[in-house]
């Protein structure tokens, strides 16, 4: 299978709507599905976030987020940084400045 250049990928579908589990504000998610990849846009707000059974790698293109786990530990990430949310992660995703990101979810067996 040939690799896919993300910026050249054809957008198969776009979904926009309110974030699930919103805690504060009115954050809106906009997802563009490109092959097996997606780029999302997130507006300021705060939501409860749970990874479930998959690890998620996030690469922020622009914006700022604060990720706080269920024990109160928090990290701030800005455009140009990448991070991993491990399977089973529970906490809050707060979008401080509008975000564009690439993300990949995968099963870590």
UniProtKB/TrEMBL annotation:
Q: Where are the transmembrane segments?
A: none
Q: Name one Pfam family in it.
A: Cupin_3
Recorded hits in SUPFAM superfamilies, A to Z, give: RmlC-like cupins
Domain named (S)-ureidoglycine aminohydrolase cupin: which ranges?
Answer: 44-102
Write down the PANTHER family for this protein, in alphabetical order: CYTOPLASMIC PROTEIN, CYTOPLASMIC PROTEIN-RELATED
Q: What is this protein called?
A: (S)-ureidoglycine aminohydrolase cupin domain-containing protein
Q: Source organism lineage?
A: Eukaryota, Viridiplantae, Chlorophyta, core chlorophytes, Chlorophyceae
């Amino acid at each position: 299978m040939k690799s896919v250049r993300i910026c050249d990928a054809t957008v198969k579908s776009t979904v926009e709507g309110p974030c699930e589990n919103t805690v504060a504000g009115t954050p809106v998610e906009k997802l563009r599905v490109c092959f097996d990849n997606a780029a999302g846009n997130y507006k300021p707000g705060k939501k409860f976030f749970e990874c479930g059974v998959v690890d998620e790698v996030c690469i922020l293109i622009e914006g700022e987020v604060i990720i706080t786990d269920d024990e109160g530990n928090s990290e701030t990430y800005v455009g140009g940084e990448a991070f991993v949310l491990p399977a089973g992660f529970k906490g809050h995703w707060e979008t401080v400045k509008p975000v564009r990101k690439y993300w990949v979810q995968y099963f870590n067996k």
